[in-house]
Prior knowledge:
Residues 1-24 form the signal peptide. This is Odorant-binding protein 99d. It is a single chain. It contains 7 helices and 2 strands; from the N terminus they run αααββαααα. The protein is mainly alpha-helical. The protein has one domain (31-136). A two-stranded antiparallel ribbon has the order 1-2. The longest helix has 16 residues, at 121-136. The two termini are 26 Å apart.
Amino acid sequence: xxxxxxxxxxxxxxxxxxxxxxxxxxxxxxxxxxxxxxxxxxxxxxxxxxxxxxxxxxxxxxxxxxxxxxxxxxxxxxxxxxxxxxxxxxxxxxxxxxxxxxxxxxxxxxxxxxxxxxxxxxxxxxxxxxxxxxxxx
Length: 137
């Protein structure tokens, strides 16, 4: 369970550099760190600290998830455009969305698709990004 919480913390910190704080925004914008932490805290309270529900709530608030189509592969790939593998990353995210799709268990879908996508190179990029952020602090 602690490993799972650490993954959620990694993901939430990564999102500091990427998403929008409103779900219905027509233009995707980068949030401030304060917005991400506020959304994360709200999600923890709403989900009663359940990891899968917290993750889905956070990525939904940040514009990286919809209950209809799962993760937004294009937005996620834009975050890691510096790795010059946007198309490959989009394929991984789309594959994991399809593989884990379960519209009757949305929290599980979000969590399992996240684990699937981060089990390879993308997971290393997330950890690398997070270690850079920790050094900056």
